[in-house]
Amino acid sequence: MTWLALTVLLAPIALVLYAYVVYPAILWLVGRTREPWTLPPEPPEWPSVSITVPAYNTGAAIRPTLDHLLAIDYPRDRLQIVVISDASSDGTDELVKSEYGSRGVELIRLPQRMGKTAAENIAVGYVRGEIIVNVDATILIPPASLKPLVRAFGDPDVGVASGRDVSVGAVTVEGNQAESGYVGYEMRIRELETRMGSIVGASGCFYGIRREVHAEPLPVELSWDFASALVAREHGFRSVSVAEAVCIVPRAKALRTELRRKVRTMARGLSTLFYKRALMDPMRYGSFAFMLASHKLMRWLPYLVTPFAFVALGWLALEAPLARWLLAGAVLGIALGIMGIRWPQGRAVPRVVSLFGFALAAFTAGFLAWVDAIRQKRMPTWEPTPRPGPQPS
Questions:
Q1: Edge-to-edge, what's the strand order for the sheet holding 49-55?
Q2: Has residue 18 got a pLDDT over 70?
Q3: Is 292 within 8 Å of 280 (Cβ atoms)?
Q4: What's the pLDDT tens digit per position in 79-106?
Q5: What is the pLDDT of residues 275-285, one digit of tens each?
Q6: Which residues are within 8 A (CB) of 158 and not within 5 positions of it... i.e. 6 or more apart?
Q7: pLDDT tens-digit map of 22-51
Q8: Is residue 393 predicted with pLDDT exceeding 80?
Q9: What pLDDT does residue 334 have?
């Protein structure tokens, strides 16, 4: 029993080390032997682009998003901007029509709440662009970000192009500043995967996809941002991360809010991975299968096994003094994490409390996401994450 408990205890640690240290090291080492992917030059004629903005009750936050999209550097006769309202009830539709309709922004309203993926499925029948660019309703796209994203499709092998998220917020007063470090790390991994051949998931905030790749509808409980790279691979395309295509993503003000978003996002991600599990077959998909399993499955497995590891640590603590000290440290870490999650908004939070809060929120969300995915709980609809309005320079 002692060896079994020790194995269970070490399993999540080994998985985390592989997913966050060993896998990036493999990407870096193998990538050094390959030529980096480079952004194609500007085309003689820019392709037609349709920007879709799925929205549900985002009247308080959508103005800056649309203002930035209207100021974007792209030929106006080649650009379509469409807001897809998921039966919003807070006046979002009226705001879009009254303030932005005359400026060229189109509105599609779903007759009833169907969810973000359903909105993206339906939008394909309305938009006119050769390239469909999905933008979150609560983020900002700088004027120079769209052209680099579209230039990526000058490579005929590219089916999906993902922007580079930049997480911003008032670090001194929020308990969620660890999110920025994680986002930066994730963007670096995507750069390495691009050099290896293809990323395995696009940014949900800002990504482009060829119309023919987006043609088939996706089950509404799955996520198009993750599935886009998988569907592209099934069609023989690669997916790339475009560093020049910056997307400004305000952090949620509180970890409590971020926890709910993470549960929904991870559960939908797991469901998408299970639905497209054939892509993890290395005999058919080679290095893409390896990267998909390493980047996604190996990152998510620790959330499933960590609670069992905690029980195993408690068992070992009955016999070993070192295990008792480790258990005490784990309990202290959980206490600090709870403090970070429950920290009052608007008050400065110590960095160590913020880090433990972010870690506890991530692991709690991950475990709950596994529970929802195993139960096959359908979560097609979503609530917008409240974000402060950033004012980037």
A1: 105-109, 79-85, 49-55, 131-135, 206-210, 158-168, 238-250
A2: yes
A3: yes
A4: 999 999 998 888 899 999 999 999 999 9
A5: 999 999 999 99
A6: 152, 237, 238, 239, 240
A7: 999 999 999 998 888 999 999 999 999 999
A8: no
A9: 86
Q: Is 192 exposed, middle or buried (0-12, 13-18, 19+ CB in 10 A)?
A: buried
Amino acid making up residue 205:
C
Rounded distance between C-alpha atoms, residue 150 and residue 96, angstroms: 25
Decide if 91 contacts 13 (C-beta within 8 A). Answer: no
Q: What is each CA distance from 310 to 25, 121, 260, 315, 361, in whole angstroms?
A: 28, 42, 23, 9, 16
pLDDT tier, 259 (very low <50, low <70, confident <90, very high otherwise) = low
Amino acid making up residue 59: G
pTM (2 decimals)?
A: 0.85
Task: Give mean pLDDT, residues 340-360.
Answer: 74
If you compute the radius of gyration of the chain from its CA atoms, what whole number of angstroms results?
22
CATH class given for the domain over 49-258: alpha beta
Q: Name the token pair of 234.
A: 């099934």
CB count in 10 Å sphere of residue 309: 19
CA angle 63, 69, 75 (to 5 degrees): 150
